[in-house]
Request: fold
Amino acid sequence: MLITRILAPAALAVAGAVAGLAPASAVSATATSTTTASIGTLACYGPNSCVGLGAYSPAQGEEYFLQTWNGASWGPAFGELPGSETYTLSALWCASASYCVAVGNTNPAAGTPAPLAVTWNGTSWSVSNPPAPAGGPGGAFLNGISCASAGFCVAVGDYTWPHAPCPPYYCRGFADTWRGGKWTIASKVPPRSARYQSYLDDVSCPSASNCVAVGGEYIPSAVGFRQDETDVAVTEIWNGRKWTVVDAPATTGGHAQLQDVSCWSVDKCIAVGYSEHVTPGEFTTALADSWNGRRWSAVKPAALGHSPALYAVSCASAKSCLAVGVGNSGENTRPIRAIGEYFNGRTWK
Reply:
């Protein structure tokens, strides 16, 4: 199953260019007052079968919708989910056009952010509330989801503590599991280091007993986050019983963050992200790591301009991965442009 999670509009633009996707038409029978529209998350369950999760802004406030891609054109928008001002959806997984699960969080305007999941059955949406970690978190957010089947899913994210000495963004990564028709929280997703603040951005589950989650860590400081020049990205491996931390390759002179992961078998995955350098000058370097079921190894992406960063990846096989992200032509210059890289099993182009 081919799963793609696109987070940035620029990344989606280059995904469309490489895959031959036409621009999505965000117009439906009830969306006649649309002022702005975009598709920010894409899930593909076949080479010519994709569903995009988008949002538009009618007069009454932002609402989410779904739209299908058949390999040649986008179909009409459907599945509008009203009241979107009370929540944010961050990731999407689809088994077909009639079964999709999206995750995110309730918005602070509606109270303390809490995990949220919505399921599409081909006709209507249903809302569920995955549990937040115990201990009274100040807020909890789901950033990624992957399902080995319609009956087994894992969603990952991060949570904060109220009145704790950490900024109001994230403090620890966590995972929720969908099984037996209900959500349960993972007993423990261990942090890489007790002194770090961590988060999980994405997960890929080729089976119910094998999932790989990726993210990053920061050292807290009195003024916010401080990059650790010797830090490595966070990766967590689920074996059907527990989560285990496995270090990704260390970067040189930068703080590593993995944004997305795609597994095409239980022991074959590619994760992408970027390394952030704070001196001299602020810039990034694109990252790609390969998982063989036992350890990670670095796979150097192609050099695409100044300060490239990869945000999403999808792999159909060991010889076919597409990663997308952004970059620019020089330090602190504009415009920022979409970039795409293709991995053939040996090198990136």
